[in-house]
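Example 3.2
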Amino acid sequence: MSPSATLTSSGPARAKPATDGAVIARLHEAQDNFIRRWGEMGATWGINRTMAEIHALLYITAQPLCTDDVMQRLNISRGNASMSLRALCDWGVIRRLHKRGERREYFESLSDVWEMFSIIAAERKRREMDPVLETIKQCQRMLDEQSLGKAGARRPEVQATRQRLASMEEFVEVTNKIFAQFVTNARNGLNRVVRVLLRAL
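Structure, written as tokens:
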């Protein structure tokens, strides 16, 4: 046997190509890992786990799915799926589609991650930051001269509370401006925020 033949026959064995079934199984495993982690993170958005998992499913599969598809993949009820899909549409992170010749509704996730997270940020601002700011302003009105009179508003303990409220109001308003910068221009928003913060340091 020639040396060249020996080298060829003793070379490293090539891995056998995966079958279609094995590829799909590994794909679903990877997708399920992402969906599970996204669902766990859902609580930080102020939404329930099922809603977050449906959003993750629509995003990671990168194709429109109908309610039946969602039910089967996540093993959830029709009512739960329908309610969560409506809520996600209200948030604006998924949208409805109609396929020609089909009566069923399909849903797809936004594909642009920057746009998706800017919508989430805007919704969190509306749900969390805006009510806090309104409460601060309400508390300030309760302690102003019109409510307490000049003497009452000038009491040291009242002034101390008003100062704390003013500091918190300033912080929340600055935070809201950062949100606005991010949401106004989703893709470039973070870069703008970073530049603003760097100039402030």
